[in-house]
Amino acid sequence: MNCLEERILKDGVVKEGNILKVDSFLNHQLDVELFDEMGAEWAKRFEGVEINKILTIEASGIGIACVAARHFNVPVVFAKKTQSVNLDGEMYTAEVESFTHKNKNNVIVSKKFLNENDKVLIIDDFLANGCALQGLISIINSAGASVAGIGIAIEKGFQSGGQIIRNLGYRLESLAIVDGMDPATGEISLRK
Amino acid sequence: MNCLEERILKDGVVKEGNILKVDSFLNHQLDVELFDEMGAEWAKRFEGVEINKILTIEASGIGIACVAARHFNVPVVFAKKTQSVNLDGEMYTAEVESFTHKNKNNVIVSKKFLNENDKVLIIDDFLANGCALQGLISIINSAGASVAGIGIAIEKGFQSGGQIIRNLGYRLESLAIVDGMDPATGEISLRK
């Protein structure tokens, strides 16, 4: 069991509606020492894979990506989310629809920071239905860059996002896969 | 001249309207090695100051704060920005009005992550008129916590935010203070 899995079992809180609250260490208060261990774990799993850039998305992905990037010695680019359509032509944009929030967002990256030579590791905090991730992949494809791999902190294994990404042939390394949660008992089942 | 000042002179781009574009290393593409050097510099400047938490604000502050936090061995909390008023009682909230964008935003931190024992170092990427910073200070005061110091990457010395904060008696350490910019020549004047 890795450091993140241990922490989820210790400090994760299950709420009604398949919600796993990890705001005490992952996405509001941030345990950067844990992020460093997560970065080391991804570096081990992606050893030998050519990676020259990490792509993440605001806001919760940024801290994890930046601390992890120290293990890869590459810069981070974070995609911006906006509902605005006030964009000039110097941006890659993907419109993604959220299953959870029922709204549409643009995922945006400046063309200056992605090109056809980039081998990109995507890092994000959560993978559930995978909308944000689909937008990031779309943007990497638009730039002619390639997806070297995908590192997710917590995958909700009972939602479809992870399976779709694996079906598409991407290498997805989730540090913890939650297969089930019980709000009555607070029990969290992690995939072995 | 520190690493950030050198980088601003090398890669900062001046645009009309007192805009300094540093998106190639500070707030869109992120040079995490530079962030690490910035963290080391703040650690040196705040040596001997009791700090047990770093507070920043989404989105651009998060990466800088997380990498810097490795030099302080403390967790990071990031404040959320939202225009929503759908808040329950478990949040500290400050309403701040942006001089730049003419809109009002809420700055929000869960009550779980700030309390009267916290000695907080605030970190953010930019200080101009200081609206976001004023909101963060207001939230720290609401929690009964104390502001141990403020670390800013780039202060626009020709706008009032930094002076107000110093007048209020806070210890503000800006790694680079821009005193003037010329969009015609691209020249950037840094305070010595």
- Helix/strand class of chain A: alpha/beta
Shape label of chain A: globular
Could you tell me the mean pLDDT of chain A?
94
Q: How many DSSP helices of chain A?
A: 5
Q: Secondary-structure element order of chain A, as H and E?
A: HEEEHEHEEEEHEHEE
C-alpha termini separation of chain A: 8 Å
Low-confidence stretches of chain A: none
Oligomeric state as shown? homodimer
- Greatest chain-chain interface? A-B, 31 and 31 residues
Proportion of helical residues of chain A: 25-40%
Main sheet specs of chain A: 8 strands, mixed
Q: Give the second-level CATH assignment, the architecture of chain A.
A: 3-Layer(aba) Sandwich
The spatial strand order of the largest sheet of chain A comes to: 6-7-5-4-8-9-10-11
Secondary structure tally: strands of chain A: 11
Q: What would the CATH topology of chain A be?
A: Rossmann fold
Radius of gyration of chain A: 16 Å
Structure, described:
2 copies of one chain form a homodimer. With 192 residues, chain A is of the alpha/beta class. Chain A has one domain: Rossmann fold, CATH 3.40.50.2020. Chain A is 27% helix and 36% strand. Chain A has 5 helices and 11 strands, in the order αβββαβαββββαβαββ. In chain A, the strands form 2 sheets. Chain A has an 8-stranded mixed β-sheet, with helices on both faces. A two-stranded antiparallel ribbon of chain A has the order 1-2. In chain A, strand 4, helix 3 and strand 5 form a beta-alpha-beta unit. In chain A, helix 2 (32-45) packs across helix 3 (60-69). Chain A starts with a helix and ends with a strand. The A-B interface holds A 23-25, 28-33, 35-36, 58-59, 62-67, 69-70, 73, 75-78, 80, 109-110, 112-113 and B 23-25, 28-33, 35-36, 58-59, 62-67, 69-70, 73, 75-78, 80, 109-110, 112-113.
